[in-house]
Amino acid sequence: MANILRSRFYQLLGNEVDSVMGYNDTNEFTFFIGMIIYVNDWPKNSQRAPYTGLGTILSIKKDKYNRDVFEVTTLDGKYIEEVPFGVVTIPTESDFVNVSDRCYQTWKKQQLPNVRAKVLKGLDSIIWDRSFVWNMCNRADFGQQAKILNSLRWEFTEELLFLLMSNGRLTHPFGEKQWCSLSVNLTISCLHLIADSLLLCTDKNVVCQRLLGSARDAVNSLSDIINKKTNTSTDQASLIDKLAFVEEDCSDSDRVVVVESVEVNRTSIDDMKGHILDKEWYIIHQIVLVVHPIASLIDWGSADGTLYSIEKLCETISLDKEAPYISYYKSKTREWKPLL
Description:
single chain; 340 residues; alpha+beta; Topoisomerase I, Chain A, domain 4; 2 domains; five-stranded antiparallel beta sheet
């Protein structure tokens, strides 16, 4: 929400966006020539004639302590030099009682950058408070809280999917023409893992290990299906169905599974007996191409891949990192930047 509001705020500022840059980290205004200020009399030991009121800065210089010293003209045209920084403040609304409307409107325009800077500061201060989720988890009526947490998880998941799709990293998620059931379940599992990590501010090391673990479990499931595919039981047909998806040139009712000769030989479930599945194809196209885009959401904070890299993913699932298509895919994703 904060990012969306900030982006919209910059759009509204348009060419005036630079006007917010005159403020320091404490939200104090950087005094400038032509600015209307309020002079709060002089120190007690000063020999000057007393003066309290509005004035306009004519020039600015520094004293020996590197503090601002101003030359000021008052509203009635008098000139004051050597006005120390310590007696100058930003005017308030009450300081403009019985002052011309023109002077007041000039001051209001000068305050716009200050107001805008405060808005941006406020947006910067909006951060997710993980104690909200922890407090929900510790509530006695956890049944209701679990429903809320699941709704939050799916809200985060939808945002993650939007980021992946809008940046061209994951196409047609859950589409039956591209992803098998095993892959769809893996997608949901990984997205929920990232969503939970954002909700609970989980350590990145833990997130990485869980992502890699999900990929490894999917590969193990794939191996189990392949090793048992020659069985003729009903249960075995159900296992094979986990690898089935709709082929592009078939009707939606036809389910197909990729077999040994990927380029030229595809077959329906009914004709599976005796065929050898192309395990490497499935690992790359149904597991790596799911896990790696989702992992690319995270800034792992290390260019050398000590936490996560596609090479580490391949090592975890026992896939040759030089396998066909992997080299092409690595070159395609090399310039990907974290999206969170």
